[in-house]
Amino acid sequence: MTATAAELLEVLWGRASTAPASASQLRVLLILEHHERINLRTLAASLASTPPSTSRLCDRLQAAGLIEREGSQADRREVHLRLSSRGRAFLADLRARREKTLQEVLDQMSAADRHALLHGLEAFCAVVTAQIHDDAEETGSQTA
Length: 144
What we know:
mainly alpha
């Protein structure tokens, strides 16, 4: 059932296109949204990627106007990344479109089924949030 649910969510999210960002670029945008002014090395570690690959990914996002790079005051070799206002607007629009698509499905469910789903999703979100927090702490301690 989990595999089917994941695949169906992919279909629903596909209706709310992520263009002009690819799936990997979307991951970068979401990480930057939660970790403002992250450096390239930490971002690469969060993506389990190499700094050169992450830099190329960021090049494309910067060219699209979705992120901004800023040199560090303390170390000229270090670059900090952050979402641009266009990047924030893109994520807000994407979320609104995804929510609308999902709401159309939820509207067709019974109240009892929506309540059961809500209860399960709350538990799911709590566990995933804790895992992401633990992963971020682990990544931060490895790069320090």
